[in-house]
Amino acid sequence: MPALDRSLISSVPTFHGLTPEQQDDVLADAQSVRYAKGADVFQQDQQAQFFFLLLHGHLRVYRLTPDGQQVVVRYISPGEIFGVAMALGRSTYPATATAVVDSVSLVWPNAVWPRLSERYPALLANTLRTVGSRLQDAQTRVVEMSTEQVERRIAHALLRLAQQSGRKVEAGIQIDFPISRQDVAEMTGATLHTVSRVLSAWEERGLVESGWQRITLRDAHRIFMLAEGNG
Fold first, then answer.
1. What order do you get walking across the sheet with 214-217 strand by strand?
2. Are 145 and 156 in contact (CB under 8 A)?
3. What is the rounded radius of gyration, in angstroms, for the C-alpha atoms of the chain?
4. I want to staple 39 with a disulfide (CB 3.0 to 4.6 A). Which of 25, 35, 169, 197 is the partner?
């Protein structure tokens, strides 16, 4: 198998602080894997045998509650490391990751993580920083769902998605991967009926534009004001 080009990771924040030779060493244990739209990269509670870096596409990460409901935890964009269960002290994956479009990831066997993290402290520090940021984001969302009205929760969710994966188009800022109203409901702890009602009302006000698995923020500033409770 030909060696992977270090340009795949040289601009990724997780690998900042590593020399080109060190990046080559990290890549020596990786392979590139393609996932078709709808395919699971890993499943909740599955034994964690690999960790990953998304190169292309987008992934949807969700957990199943004990009563079988799906809760969308986050979306993963290119350049993000994920599935590093060992960094969390876990032996299993805490959620399921599914490709929402055809996607490509670099994949490392979990067995190399102790060696790489010990040899390259910058890699460990950058990974822990990423994990910490995601935990902080999860805590923020828990507080939102406990204390905020549904319109504010939806506004916050759309702003996060736009910041993470927004693409400027003529109409505004389009969330650059397929996302449905059901997905927004699962992100915000709301019902599909409520999300549909809110987004339809926002469309009439010219705040958003939504179609088949597409959402565009036409007026991000007014949505921000709604998120802050000033709408």
1. 166-169, 172-175, 214-217, 208-211
2. no
3. 19
4. 35
Buried b (16+ CB within 10 A) or exposed e, 83-112: bbbbbeeeeebebbbbbbeebbbbbbebeb
Task: State the DSSP code for 61.
Answer: E
Could you tell me the mean pLDDT of each successive run of 10 residues in the chain, 231 residues long?
A: 78 92 93 96 95 95 88 91 88 95 96 93 91 84 81 94 90 91 92 94 94 90 89 64
Can you tell me the distance from the alpha carbon of 218 to that of 72, in angstroms, rounded to the nearest whole number? 24
Report the amino acid identity of residue 105.
Answer: S
Residue spans of beta strands (DSSP E) within the chain: 31-35, 40-42, 50-56, 59-64, 70-76, 81-82, 96-99, 103-109, 166-169, 172-175, 208-211, 214-217
- The rounded distance, in Å, linking the Cα atoms of 225 and 155 is 9
Helix (H, G, I), strand (E, B) or coil at 70: strand
pLDDT of residue 16: 92
Apex 113 CA angle, 109 and 119, nearest 5: 135
Between CA 70 and CA 78 the distance in angstroms is 23
The tokens describing 58, both together, are 């987008």
DSSP 13-28: GGGTT--HHHHHHHHT
Torsional sign, CA 105, 60, 41, 129: positive
